[in-house]
């Protein structure tokens, strides 16, 4: 039976599970971005530091100037993950899972 559940990390999942089986032990059907997210942490951190740096946001005191809020927002937006990273990860799982 296919069920939807929330895993221990609070992420909603879909799994095909036999009767009286814990959802985590069933065949996982929902997309798993765990590996990609692990890679993102370092990539995002590097990008964010770079984007803050080029905007002159280098010292903690640089962030106290309320006129810099837009610079912080722009840095965060520029450092974001590319949507194609997520699509590529999902495509790879489709090929692996035979969907």
Please explain how this structure is put together.
There is one protein chain. The protein has helices at residues 34-54, 69-78, 83-97, and strands at 2-6, 12-16, 27-28. By secondary structure, it is of the alpha+beta class. A 3-stranded antiparallel sheet has the order 1-2-3, with no helix packed on it. A hairpin with a 5-residue loop joins strand 1 and strand 2 (12-16). Helix 1 crosses helix 2 (69-78). The two termini are 17 Å apart. The model has no long low-confidence stretch (mean pLDDT 86).
Based on the model shown, name its key terms.
alpha+beta, 12% strand, 99 residues, three-stranded antiparallel beta sheet
The major beta sheet can be summarized as: 3 strands, antiparallel
Helix vs. strand class: alpha+beta
Number of helices: 3
Question: What portion of the residues fall into strands of 2 or more residues?
Answer: 5-15%
Helix-strand pattern: EEEHHH
Q: Which strand order do you get reading across the main beta sheet?
A: 1-2-3
Mean pLDDT over the residues = 86
Helicity level, as a percent range? 40-55%
Report the count of strand segments.
3
Shape label: elongated
